[in-house]
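Exercise 7b. Backbone tokens:
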């Protein structure tokens, strides 16, 4: 298994659900990391939770871990290696992939177990 360097991003994140035809709200686009996905059934947002208005349907208290480095899109197994470890430890994961790398979100309550699980597998975690 490839040993990875992982970076815990600052702050806590929320995963929000809006109607599929809603405009992308400005509050969701604040901060160094956010993700916007539109489908035919929803507009899904991942953003810093302090920016989310109280009336928005969301799940809060997520932490975001970035896989450090740039990976070619043809490279396989990077995300799977992390998700399978965390799944085996019964830690729920939300994954986001970009052109360059992957991000794994875990609940704040699971962060300690996540760190231990990943470190025991030989991954380096930067806080």
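Sequence design result:
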């Amino acid at each position: 298994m490839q040993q990875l360097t992982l970076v815990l991003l600052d702050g806590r994140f929320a995963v929000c659900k809006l109607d599929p035809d809603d405009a992308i709200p400005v509050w969701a686009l604040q901060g160094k990391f956010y993700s916007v996905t539109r489908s035919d059934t929803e507009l899904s947002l991942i953003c810093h939770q302090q920016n989310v208005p109280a009336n928005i349907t969301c799940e809060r208290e997520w932490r975001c871990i970035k896989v450090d480095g740039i990976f070619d899109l043809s490279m396989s197994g990077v995300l799977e290696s992390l998700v399978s470890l965390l799944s085996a430890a019964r830690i729920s994961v939300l994954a986001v992939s970009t052109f360059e790398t992957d991000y794994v979100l875990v609940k704040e309550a699971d962060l300690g177990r996540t760190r231990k699980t990943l470190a025991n597998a030989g991954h380096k975690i930067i806080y």
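Instructor comment: The first strand starts at residue 5 and ends at 8. Residues 5-126 form a domain with the VC0802-like fold (CATH 3.30.2130.10).
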